[in-house]
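Final report, Chapter 2: Outcomes

The project's central promise was a pipeline that accepts a single protein chain and returns its three-dimensional structure in a standardized token representation, suitable for archiving and comparison. That pipeline is now operational. To close this chapter, we reproduce one record exactly as it appears in the project archive, with the input sequence first and the structure output second.
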Amino acid sequence: MAINPADGKVYIHGANTGGGIYAINPRAITAAKLLTTVTGANAASSSQNTFRTLSPTFNFSTASSYTPNTLPTRSVYYQLNTKSGTWIKANGSSTFSATLSNIPRGQHVLYAFAVDGLEGGASAGSFVNSSVSPVVGSVATFVFTVVDLLPQVISFAPSASVVLGTSPLVLTAAGGGSSSPVVFATSSVSTICAVSGNTVTFNGIGNCNLIANQAGSGDFAAAVPVSATIAVLGRVPSLSFGAVLLSLRLDESTAGLVRSTSDGLVTYSSSDATICVISSACASTICPNFSDRLYSITPKGVGKCVVTARQEARLEYAATQVSIEIAITKGRQAISGFAPLTNPAAGTPPLILSAIGGGSQNPVTFTTTSPATVCTITGSALTAIGAGACSVVANQAGNANYDAATPVTVILTVLAAPDTTPDPFSFISQSNLPLNTQIVSNTVTVAGIDAGVQLSISITGTAGANAGYSIGCTGTFISVNSVIINGQRVCLRITTSANSGDTSIATLVVGSIVSRFDAVTADSAPQNRYRLYIPSTGGHLFTTDKNEYDVLAPQVGTYVAEGIDHKIFTRSVTKNGQVATPYYRLYIKTVRQHFWTSDQFEYNALRTQTDLFIDEGIDGYIFLAAGVTGSVPLYRLVLNNTAIHHWTIDKNEFDFLINSKQWSGEGVPTNPPGVTGYVMPK
């Protein structure tokens, strides 16, 4: 059936009409007597004509002013924004409603009317103007507007952080005006947190991300979800330094145990390493016992420092730290190594004092309170002056970091000066000794001293080789200084001279006593020097060779034997401190005579003239100067304007020849005229 309110006709389709459509004219008198009223079932509370939903619901109520014969079969039809389309039958039989969907926001018109069908028993297929045709009511017009839903805002601000182990938290939030509750959820894994209803449970360290939602209802739209994060922090361990000294001297240190309910690694630091440092055996590895950690605090300077123990996060425990302030005051110094000291004797070498001081590095100084007649101190040297008590005080000054050390006093007893002058002793000189031979003196005993006395030896002459002294005369001889004590024996050893009649001297000094040991070699006996006259040349030949003399003497006419003229030494000797000089002999080819000289330069100049001279070497040894006991002058003369020379010890002969004006003297310039040297008389 379809009704067209525009023409007031009801159109039906029925089988008895052959499938055709028929229009039935309702009774016009009933249109005004059947009314329809429209109300908004879910309209906004402010007006029945305003909706905040895109699916508004309408209620239709009908009223009739006529009295039908029987209870009418009533229907309500509606159409939106037009009356020319297909009418839609509302829900219900006695009360009627309809819900629209997806209605755009804006103003709309709803048309509705009621129909009483087949009143009076008319059946389908009745024709127009039938007395039993349906009653069609008048069309009701309902203007309404669809507007936006009211917004909802959630106010959700839980705690920013909680500590793991905190009891489950009841979440609260203020929502919008709808009747929908605020519901909660989490996007975090369950090992961190879980939400059940409005309760969140914390299961592990991390960020618990929460979401609050509120659905829309009635005039209210769904609220925008609100997110919040609760940081689930580790438990704060009970970290502490335990019992510790908060004030230390610079020379002290302290140790203790850091205690914690966590087993996280603990490291240490100081705010000023020039004041104090803190260290621990557990600073780089986890300690075997996680609750106790040994640490030590070492002062470095005077002042205040803050030491901090830091523990890293581990498992359910958070990182934490604890600090304490340590006051470092001046350190104490102590002097050590100062006693005992040796009691010195007056007059002995200074006693060098020493002691070990404290940490200030200032030197330990020494003073005495005793009279200067007993002892004096200069620097670290103590000089014992006289017998008595010598009070020695050691001090060490303080500085910015250390107090002065407590003075240390030591009382020394200065002993009376020892007797270091031995009783006189002497060594017996030895003479007529062989040449170049080691000689040991007689043994003497040092007596009369009550302290060690320095002993030294000095050597004069050629006795230095292997020379020395022996304490105890054990056979070991030394020449360096040493100390001898009362009752010890000592003997000397020297080497005799390589020259005859020479003296080697060793002088031993013991304290203030000086004793000399002389070792004299045997004299070398001078040898006879023979003289022969050579008539053919008028010259003379001198020789110490007895065999030569004995061979030449019998040659009558060639040589005239004149016997022993004087004596000379056949090797170098030392007499009265004078060393004998070589006396050289050369043969002069041109005059067939011999020539003697003690002048080495003259000798060397002549012997190289081999065409004139024959070198015959050293004839003997003479002394160049006077002073040798028993010696006599040897004169040398030259025949004027010739190479002929003459030697004599006879002063009268010398004078006679000089006075003849034919001879001239050729002596050593430092000697008397004509004296070429000194020899021993026959």
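Archive annotation: Residues 12-24, 118-132 have pLDDT under 50 and may be disordered.
This record, like all others produced under the grant, will remain available to the consortium after the project formally closes.
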